[in-house]
Design goal:
This protein is α+β, with helices and mostly antiparallel strands and about 375 residues long. It has four domains: about 110 residues, no CATH class; about 70 residues, K homology (KH) domain (GMP Synthetase, Chain A, domain 3, 2-Layer Sandwich), CATH 3.30.300.20; about 60 residues, no CATH class; about 70 residues, no CATH class. Helices cover about 35% and strands about 20% of the residues. The strands form three sheets. It has a five-stranded mixed β-barrel. A hairpin with a 4-residue loop joins strand 9 and strand 10. Helix 4 crosses helix 5.
Length: about 375
Amino acid sequence: MSENKELQDQAGDELLLPDTTYKPGCNKLDSFNWLSNLPECAAENEIVEIRFKNTRKGFYRNINNLRLEIGDVVAVEASPGHDIGRVSMTGRLVREQIRELKIPPSPDDLKKVYRKARTADIQKWEEAKKLEIPTMLRSRKISAELNLNMKIGDVEYQGDKTKAIFYYIADERVDFRQLIKVLADEFRVRIEMRQIGARQEAGRIGGIGSCGRELCCSTHITNFNSVTTTHAKYQELSLNPQKLAGQCGKLKCCLNFEFDCYVDAQKGFPPRDIPLEATDETAYYLKMEVHKKLYWYTTGPDSTANMIPVPVDRVKEIQEMNKKGRKPRRILTTATTGPEISGLSGKEDEEYSITRFDTPVQAKKKRRHSRKKKNRKSNEKKKS
């Protein structure tokens, strides 16, 4: 009986322990090790990358030559005390990452990895994480009482509960010296204020984008590059702020994804602000289809009627002729009006037709119905 009771007590203690098993691919801060097939030596594990909460990462020295793998929970040096994090990168890939980020390679400037996290460390870490949401809610009330124009978006406790990082958003410069004093008296920890942008806040909260998928900033983007309206202009997108802005209120990060492709495709394109002059008409630029290498022109500078698709090569040819004072008889010749161009209007009509999803049987019934309707009307006219 006593042995069974001891086994039950041990099982109960194990159930109380937090689940720290690593699930690959379940965190956006994971890095794919594309050098995993290459042999590694012990010297290459001298520096490892550790990830924490809110896209925070850092490089640390493995001073005790621990056998660390991706996903291990470790205790690392902090100021003050120690912090708990997960190993996100090891081996030769760390050296490549340091070289890419242009970080000074001196290992003496890096903080240390103390040990793999013990059960007591993990339990204290879990207790610290449970304090984060109540602390955030209380700190919001305190900042509102102090009339500070800021929003505290998240709180991150250090693994040993001696320090807390408060992430906040503010449009203007904020004097939070009084806030730090009140927070330190309230929570009895060391306070650090860290400002984040609207993109980081959207990535922390998450959501569904206009494409129907989860936000890129909450799934895989960790470094936010600047996005301007130039990215939209190169991709021939309408400058509609409601369509171009994401849930953070800034321009969508996905405008960067295909930008280089569009820039490369337009390198040899002729200028667009020069009208094409022929003997009978003058054509004015309206829009372009980059990957089809087509410019669309109209017969009036402020009109969208009589749209003409002209290949890029033909545009270059006409512009060269106009520079020399010559004009072609027609903007489009029989050689340039191939099936890809002559059938564009018909394809567009089919694309936007309300009957494009009908099955052949449904389409046949509708044609028969419209034919009967026309015959009925014609018979009524004849009788009258």
